[in-house]
Amino acid sequence: MAEFTLTMPDVGEGVAEAELVEWNVKPGDIVHEDMVLAAVMTDKATVEIPSPVAGVVTWLAVTVGNTVPVKAPLLRIETDAAAAAIDREADAIDREAAAEAPVVIAEAEAPADMTEAPPPVEAHHPARDISEPSPESAAEPHHKPLAAPAVRQRADDLDIDLAKVKGTGPDGHITHSDLDGYLTARGRPERPSATASHDSAVEDVKLTGLRRKIAEKMVLSASRIPHITYVEEIDVTDLEDLRATMNGNRRSGQPKLTILPFLMRALVKAVADHPGMNATFDDEKGVVSHYEAVHIGIATQTPAGLTVPVVRHAETLGLWHCAEEVARVAEAARTGTAHREELMGSTITISSLGALGGVVSTPIINHPEVAIIGVNKIMTRPVWDGARFAPRKIMNLSSSFDHRVVDGWDAAVFIQAMKALLEKPALIFIE
């Protein structure tokens, strides 16, 4: 008997370990070469682990939620059993297909004394809700449905059996849209009623994967960085008028402009005069690094949790290119397809909840950066212009800074520079 031990591969430069977030197999399962066995998560990305051999899984070394060092054992596969097991699987499928095949009886001449043949007996099958696909039609027998880790996590959270979901992605991969369609057809499950017993109303959920990484990073930032938060009102009436005009005249293929690209361009111009904001702080070495390149992190809510994809070299991008890049990296983050390099290396971050942005927020700095710009919702308010009250569109910027290396005065001056650019948006386009 020959056994192959799969060890934790090197999943990225400088990565010494990763957290196991999903097993796609269990002992006794037949695996094929290149079949995805598991998913692990590093500090920045989720990586799928394929099988280099065919065979039968005999042992799993790690449970979900545990951290695995590079080159540590993950599982064992009995390779000698592969051919026999695959043959047994094929025979079982053939037997199942034969058992389910309809029996066809050749039509023969009726006996002379028979005046009428009896009507055929129809087999009775229980009624099925045709809006809900059956497991047989949704996935091939004995094959695990194909889906990205983020999709699997969302399905698990919603108690969806992926075997019942028809995949419309490449090679039959199940996408978030497929889950949405399934939920619509099935109807969302009711939440436990308020009269449920205390025991049934409590669910202990272990933090794993991205949720645990978020928790660890929040604790790191909040415990090691003394935050100072500065809030300023921005009159974006002229900016919103300009944005509406540009959207009304955009060319085919150009994305719709949100306020984010304007903020990115204002941020690029402001940090050029305040390089201490586009920086990281290594508090163990006591070194602040100022960067010429502006790599803007865009805090993005995904089905798996908060992720910060990065628009790199924003200083080289125009307004429309900023919009395209924001849309691209945010979508990659939401679908779990972002590359590792797209989730690391930011030098300053923008956090926006859009219409849900509230009046004021206290954003947590993305360690080891020294500044984060929080965007609140736009509201129409009466503003005194010296002669009368006029309706103006007002938006707050709630921004946090590392008070160890950024003084309150410097933080205020920096935000005032952004305010001047956003309130007179023509200045954003002046080189």
Structure explained in plain terms:
The protein has 431 residues and is an alpha+beta fold. Helices cover 27% and strands 24% of the residues. The chain contains nine helices and 17 strands. It has helices at 82-100, 135-138, 149-157, 176-186, 209-224, 237-248, 260-273, 319-335, 408-423, and strands at 3-7, 17-23, 30-31, 36-41, 46-50, 55-60, 67-69, 73-78, 227-235, 279-282, 287-290, 296-302, 305-307, 310-311, 348-352, 371-384, 389-402. Strands 9, 12, 13, 14, 15, 16 and 17 form a seven-stranded mixed sheet that branches. The chain has a four-stranded antiparallel sheet with strand order 1-8-6-3. The protein is elongated, with a radius of gyration of 29 Å. Residues 103-142 and 190-197 have low confidence and may be disordered.
The helix fraction, in percent, is 25-40%
> What is the succession of H and E elements?
EEEEEEEEHHHHHEHHEEEEEHEEEH
Question: Which residues sit in consecutive blocks of at least 5 with pLDDT less than 50?
Answer: 103-142, 190-197
Sheet with the most strands, sense and barrel status:
7 strands, mixed
Question: What is the CA-atom radius of gyration, in angstroms?
Answer: 29 Å
